[in-house]
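Table S5 (text form). Sequence records supplied for joint modeling of the two-component complex.
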Amino acid sequence: MEAFSVLANSQITDEGLKAANAALSSGFAYGLAAIGSAIGIGFLVGKSVEAMARQPEAAGMVRTTMFLGIAFTEALALIGFVVFILAGLG
Amino acid sequence: MLALDFPPINEVLRWRDLIPGIGFNKISLIVVLAVVISVAVFFAAIRKDPMKPPTGVRNFAEVLVEFIEQQIIMPTVGRSGLGWTPFLLTLFVFIFLCNIPGIIPFLQMPATARLAIPLFLSLVVWLVFVGAGLKHQGVGYFTHLIWPPGVPAGLKPLVGLIELVSTLIVRPFSLTIRLCANLLAGHILLVTFAVLAQELIKSDAIALKPVAILPWVMLVFITAFEVLVAFLQAYIFVILTAVYIGTSVHPEH
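The corresponding structure-token record, covering 343 residues in total, follows.
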């Protein structure tokens, strides 16, 4: 109910607009940054599981390389998360 | 219905001084504890009598050393890198002991979620891998670094710029951000679900009180997940350090 009472006597202020922009853009920053990394990690782990299933004796090496790949792939999503913190909560 | 206000970010991350005026807060306490615990464990593991079989703490320390040697150094640097074991073991134990307080009651804060500690660690790693490169390859390290062998002459300016930036600037930056942001994200997740559960229990509507079980279950699940993250991030930091040292010590031909 509170939300509607706010709508009734709405007055757009500069601070309100700024806060709304920050909230919106921080959400977009994190969401868009996560897409690429999510697809990348999905591919990476899927292919690694495939490799481990084909050649179980190489599992150790594949696992090490997989973690390395995950570390590089998720870096961009994490930068998106930092932008989210800076823009949204900071 | 619910007064759901996420606490401001500084309230979650900044801590008051334990004793006012000397600038020693919870983060410093965790870092000092991490150093004291790791030094104590490895001193307790020193073998006093070489004829006796290893027991207790020493077994644990041997497992850690073997983990660093077999799982981190051998696949990345190779046999010649075994001399790096003490450095990588120190890094691993310190980062893990800084990560794990995120889920320990009363501490409830990973020290690595503040940017200063990962930044310092990755600057140390930066100095070490550049130093190792200079020691093993001399000044040729830098030319090798910006122009890997086999690059066509026309591409040299472009490749040189990309390699220089990616090695000397992006490497420490991404190490820092990776460690810090992972732990920070975990901490914020824990705070979010804790706040949600608390507000649901405190709510006036009696029908909402049982719903608090859902965020509470999630909280337990994330706490278990954070143990994994604490280990995995320490592992990833150390294995990346080993890879960087490996590329400095053995240049690609």
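Note: Chain B touches chain A through 19 residues (CB under 8 Å).
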